[in-house]
Amino acid sequence: MNITTLIPDNSGLVDWPTLSADKKAVVTVGAFDGMHRGHRAVIERTVQQAKATQSFSVVIMFDPRPNLVHQYAGQHQGMDLPEDAHDDQKISGIRQRLRIMRELGVDHVLVVRYTLAFAAKSYRFFLGQLVGKLGMRMLVLGADAVMGANRAGDIKAISLLAQATGVFQLEVVDDLGPGYVRVPASITPQAPESEGEPVDPTASMNKAELRAWSKSVQGRKVRVWSSSHVRYLLSQGRIKDANEVLGHAHGIEGTVVHGEQRGRTIGFPTANLDTVVDGYLPVDGVYAGWLIDLGEQDSKTSESADSEASDGHKNNSVQQYRDEDARSDSARLAPHSPWRWPAAISIGTKPTYSEETGIAERAVEAYALHDDWLDLYGHRVCVEFAGFLRPQIAFDGTDALVEALKKNVEETKELTRDML
């Protein structure tokens, strides 16, 4: 799979690459945050149509998320999002999305930096560029896709354009899945109050109760297969429901750093992630899942740290990630990989000790169920979630905490035994 980073110029124009002098392209477009079942359905159809027509399969992926760019502009007098801005609402990082696209057989991924100037181009202009520069002969989109200035390029408008010009076909994929669900207008993390996987609070409501709940949270209608729904589920600790929508275990990635090293003293040494992680952090709590070693951080970027995007600007988040890296990561992430271990995962402020230490920063710690201590300092790791175990609580001393952790280890063994 070929990965190319494209950064629009100040006027929003993109220097699209020439993929081939004669081979055509089947293209899909989107942010693909989370790579949930709906996204996969669209990309799978793109790859199928490309193979059937002996064309390239091309995914144009926007980074950062368009919603974040427009939200920032609305709050900062129309300014573009800073290049170093951290997006803590994205479900998955670029690397995670690229790996799945590679597994699905995509030929080319064009990662376009989404800017306001780029967003201001009409959908007609954008699609004309794809036809003229990439050789697009088929566009594959989900059923409710929109694009272009003022979101004017909906399925109906694009279909009319395809028919009028005759230069490309539009293939619409039924990616709606099992229907729709209501989620709060403002998603606020809410930790479950009891042990075990939380359930849908609306499942047992009658129609009147459901209307009252929806009114109280200003509920909005979203697809079951949607990034918004996944964020809501993760914010409530509903890992199994989120994983069902995603079609894979939700994961975050980060670099292992030195922590307080208290875990070693009580027999539960943990891998502590840096404060900035790639992916959406579920609500505070203790989870069962996996810890996967993706290798030393420096080894992922040393050979390509000086590579440049199409306009000569450095792009540290994407350009340093190559198909070889995706292949290596996929091998490490595979079931039964020697770099993968079941793990009890803690997200939170360590309430048992926070008053004593005065440290109240949110931390991610993973205790790998392994016979030996794993020296992963400086390594990039992936933490995958299988289920919610319990909320974060302040225990009455270390002994009580150790007993709870022993129970969590046994629960982790049980939950991950048949899920590799």
TrEMBL record:
Domain of life: Bacteria
Metabolic or biological pathway, per its Swiss-Prot or TrEMBL entry: Cofactor biosynthesis; FAD biosynthesis; FAD from FMN: step 1/1
GO biological process, alphabetically ordered: FAD biosynthetic process; FMN biosynthetic process; riboflavin biosynthetic process
Keywords recorded for this protein, A-Z: ATP-binding, FAD, Flavoprotein, FMN, Kinase, Nucleotide-binding, Nucleotidyltransferase, Transferase
EC class: transferase
EC code: 2.7.1.26, 2.7.7.2
Residue span of region Disordered: 299-334
InterPro entries named among the record's database cross-references: FAD_synthase (IPR015864), Riboflavin_kinase (IPR023468), Riboflavin_kinase_bac/euk (IPR015865), Riboflavin_kinase_dom_sf (IPR023465), Rossmann-like_a/b/a_fold (IPR014729)
Protein family according to the UniProt entry: Belongs to the RibF family.
Stated name of the protein: Riboflavin kinase/FMN adenylyltransferase
Species classification: Bacteria, Bacillati, Actinomycetota, Actinomycetes, Bifidobacteriales
